[in-house]
Design goal:
Three copies of one chain form a homotrimer. Chain A is of the alpha/beta class. The first copy, chain A, contains eight helices and 42 strands. Helix content of chain A is 20%, strand content 29%. In chain A, the strands form seven sheets. In chain A, strands 12-15-18-21-24-27-30-33-36-39-41 form an eleven-stranded parallel sheet, with helices on one face. In chain A, a hairpin with a 7-residue loop joins strand 8 and strand 9. Chains A, B, C: This is Bifunctional UDP-N-acetylglucosamine pyrophosphorylase/glucosamine-1-phosphate N-acetyltransferase.
């Protein structure tokens, strides 16, 4: 493909009034990512980013900033006067900038986020194969009522005779099954030559791209249609409820992709799995699990219900018990987490290590086979292999001004309810007595205590009661 | 409307045998509230509470107690001998009490909880406009089989010719689409004049109100029908499974109301949102969130999955991370909670404050920008602005007999694992060393320590092992 | 029934290639149990375990080990050459072993796990009543396309004329509604006499049991069909997605069974309830609850959302708040747990006891009315009646080598953040001061302290800041 043969325009100027939101429509998120970013990602599989032109308008600065990192181009449509007007702006931009005009132009909608790369490629391929002036992507929903319909000369032929809005359908056309997706491919010259002929003689007073189809057909040019495999991928979202439908559809499709690769996902429709998550075979995902962002999970692992794992990397045979929260963490093979373990960013859990209930880690490395099983906070710590962190032990990493590190050597035993006041080093093989506040370095193999001796006062409770009674009586 | 023009009778005497429950049917809860309370709430939008007559029978004392606060009237139906019998009891009550008889009587079912105020009003308005002796609310389900059917003289006319039970339908009537909801409006005089003519010549040996329709039609009186917009709102619940269906329908409809107002609710069918909850636009509700009772959430907030918020008030731009439990709490703008924060009643979290993981608050005020991020229990405390509560710090508010308060001044730093023995005051800007037990007042700007100095015994671990070995050998 | 009249063969030799799993298909779990174990459990209701013959092949050792405890017999099918071949192996096994041949042979599939005992019995009874040579279990799905179809002589007669694969259906047979479930009953002699006549003249080159039906019909033997009540119970699982469908169906059917018994289960399709769980009437199960294994819950209890209860026994009027995890625990009447309580194996919670948020118990007995409400770890402990365990109190049950017990007498008060260093005994009615490390026995009624006296240094914070400033300046 000649580099300049194809370009893609993405309609991204609308406000989305029916969303009742202050955010521009194409920045609303489904599947963990803005609508427009989904469309750009699909478009990028067909043309390079600098051949993608986002036509922006409403809150254009916010939209531009949100997607700038993709490297796409932007064209401003200051007023939103219809899809035809959007491409008039694009044409003007080409003319002003002197940019070479691509031979073909694919038009996508920034609010139709489930469009698949395969489908965009199919539109392109059909367009080329059919030598069409315009190629229309259609779909066949269960009930086409309300949609604009694409009429063909013959049901089994690609040639289109008209695009007709619902209200203009003749009674014998009411059951026409194919709807217009609003996704097109044009021979750019044929399109640009007709854009100025568009009028606003319609209910909304806008310039409609569908009128180009009518012009081309009237002039005997070739307009063809191709059906999308599923309806969901051409559905837009005009209301939040519709957007939520697309979110669920996108994530369910990811779950089905993983199941087809040998991952067991109980109640797949209840899980929230982002599109780029990867999971090895024979891993079991229980209901109500969330795997978000760039998460990878190895094979033979089990993720129990209500756990939320984001941007993390887990090995093989890892057991994540119920309700764990992981964010930007790494977990090696055979580790066991939770229930209710909370791994914050830069937590690295070693092979076969255990992080138990109500334990929080942050910027902390836990060595091979080490255990912190109950009610601990471990922050800014480097913990060796085979270490035992007792229940309730806490790294005091913050002195009100700075954060300080805690270093614990291999095989150390940190007694329950210990307070490790950082910066501090606990030597390998050392032993911290339960209930100790540790403020000074502990050498290898040493015992450290930092607690008071017990005092016992026999009969105290009875005496206190007697005194209280006397007080009440007096 | 003349105050005595309309009254409403609500059938609430039944046992609900098929529920297999010891509780009376109308006290079973859906959407967080007893069935009967939903019906009363809808009825109260049309007539004042003292014009509503609940006809009670099975476990009448419990039913009366459960709804007494609404101010409705009660009529006892000691035996449950059918809907006609229920209104005979109502008539007798009017006669005995000498209460003025209302001109029109609306009849609702205490176990049809999704009935909407708009629909009750529509029945009333139709009744008046049509000058009917009896007006019947109908619905058109996908499959009417099994339901009593309302037959009209003509499909597009309001006049009813008969109500026919499923088993009495002629073959040409089997597909009659309109079902009888059991919700009626009567001209009271016309009704009361015929109640004594009802017989029990039917399968169940009960007095049926539907026979009144037959009498009125036979006498040439005007009986009309009006269709409900949806089937759900006339559905009763005879089994627990049916009741659960109504619960889900009620809550989903609340989710859709909020989405239409600009709230993003991912997987809306998975959330549990009570009818009176309000949420500002551009707030995001993740899947599996529960918003219960009189909860209000501001704009631009985010409630993450598995959080349950009941009778609480949250401001704008609040972030509630996963798994937080809030009950009767207040949370100011820009605060961050969780994951797994537990705010018990009378918790008031200040602006931009942070309550982190495994932290519980109860009857506690947290000032602006203060932080309690890990593993704390804060009870009966008043905490100022800019305070830092270290990991594991605990207010010891209970001495085995009484609860005592803890007061912490602005800018204080409470070290990790501190134990604050209440009653106690920690002065503004003071500093509590990690691991301290604090039993006495700490002045402003002071340092307080309450921990032992560390003792270190080098070589202790090796010595212990040697001793243990010798013990084993000896 | 003569003990040797019936035997059951279960097809369990397949690999399940489409699962993309290294585990044999019949060992994949749904409803908390391997597919094959579900089928064996159903089969055992009809014949004794030693009359059940599992035909195993792929990973036969693993399959044998996984189900050996049921007492079934095994027959090896070393190569998987079709259902007919499987029964050839069975026949050979009977012949070699000299085992008496049963008069009738029921054939089940190890990957059709929802088959109900009632349905197996109905196949058996039909087979006997009809004096059939072969009885075929059928089902009528919404869309039979793709399935082998069972054709009858007449729709209302039991006699079968043919089993026809989808691709061999004549156009007038395409809508034949009854599909072949692959579940059969044979007169064993009639079957065994024809097994050697099977050929592999088919697409997959396998020996097919369906060909036996054709032979029998051709010879004028009686082949009859009986319809299953539901389609789900004859569905197999060839993909993980299909298996997940069966899992959801199985668990939903359990939820419906419980609701019919008077249990309220909100959003029943969201709960995960294993087949053998029992729950008393008027207990309320909130959405997203999991009741697993051999769990029993009494009456009038409430289990709040996100709780997971496995192999545990709960009494009446127990309240389990959100997010509790119970494994092999016992909870007496009127107890209150959670939110986020974690009861590990051998936890026994007494009547009206409270275990609160972020509390973990393990091998621990809690007496009547005792409370451990916040942030505790209680392991290897025996705690009496009326004990109060303060927030953050911890049993230090592990010294790095051994686990030791903690005994706490009735009515003791264990102050917040106490550290109980086991082995240790805390006497009845004694009082442990908050923040204490307790290492020695506490007598009945005594006060024990193990904490340092507080030291306060007025003006320290200002002095430190001044020093820091000087350091920065110098």
């Amino acid at each position: 493909m000649v580099s300049n043969e194809f370009a893609i325009a993405i309609m991204a100027a609308g406000k989305g009034t029916r969303l009742k939101s202050k955010h521009p429509k194409v920045l609303h998120e489904i599947g963990g990512r803005a609508l427009l970013l989904h469309v750009i990602a699909a478009a990028e599989t067909v043309v390079p980013a600098d051949h993608i032109f986002c036509i922006i308008g409403h809150e254009s600065d916010r939209v531009r900033t949100a997607v700038a990192a993709t490297g796409v181009q932007f064209v401003l449509q200051p007023e939103q006067r219809g899809t035809g007007h959007a491409l008039q702006m694009l044409k003007a931009d080409f003319e002003l900038s002197g940019r070479p005009i691509p031979q073909h132009l694919l038009v996508l909608s920034g609010d139709v986020p489930l469009i698949r790369p395969e489908t965009i490629a199919a539109v392109r391929d059909t367009h080329l194969r059919e030598h069409a002036a315009m190629t229309i992507l259609t779909a066949v929903p269960a009930d086409p009522t309300g949609y604009g319909r694409v009429l063909r000369a013959s049901a089994d032929k690609p040639e289109v005779t008209a695009i007709v809005e619902q209200k203009s359908l003749r009674s014998d056309q009411l059951s026409a099954p194919e709807i217009n997706s609003g996704i097109y491919c044009f021979e750019t010259a044929a399109l640009f030559a007709r854009l100025n002929a568009l009028t606003t003689n319609n209910t909304h007073g806008e310039f409609y791209l569908t009128d180009i189809a009518a012009m081309l057909v009237a002039e005997g040019k070739r307009v063809v249609a191709i059906k999308a495999d599923s309806v969901d991928e051409v559905l837009g979202a005009n209301t939040i409820a519709e957007m939520m439908h697309l979110d669920a559809a996108m994530r369910l499709s990811t779950a089905h992709r993983l199941m087809a690769q040998g991952v067991t996902i109980f109640r797949p429709e209840t899980c929230v799995i982002d599109a780029h998550v990867t999971v090895g075979p024979d891993t079991i995902i229980e209901p109500y699990v969330q795997l978000l962002g760039n998460t990878h999970i190895g094979s033979d692992s089990r993720i129990r219900s209500y756990s939320v794992i984001q941007n993390s990397r887990l090995g093989d045979n890892v057991l994540v018990r119920n309700g764990c929260i992981l964010d930007t963490a790494e977990v090696a093979n055979n580790a066991i987490l939770g229930p209710y373990a909370h791994l914050r960013p830069e937590s690295r859990i070693g092979e076969a290590a255990h992080i138990g209930n109500f334990v929080e880690t942050k910027k902390t490395i836990i060595g091979r086979g080490s255990k912190a099983n109950h009610l601990s906070y471990l922050g800014d710590a480097v913990i060796g292999d085979g270490v035992n962190i007792g229940a309730g032990a806490i790294t005091c990493n913050y002195d009100g001004v700075h954060k300080h590190p805690t270093i614990i050597g291999d095989g150390a035993f940190v007694g329950s309810d210990s307070t490790l006041v950082a910066p501090i080093t606990i030597g390998a093989g050392s032993y911290i007595a339960a209930g100790s506040s540790i403020t000074e370095e502990v050498p290898e193999g040493a015992l450290a205590l930092g607690r008071s001796r017990q005092t016992t006062k026999p009969g105290w409770v009875a005496a206190r009661k007697a005194a209280a009674k006397q007080n009440t009586n007096s």
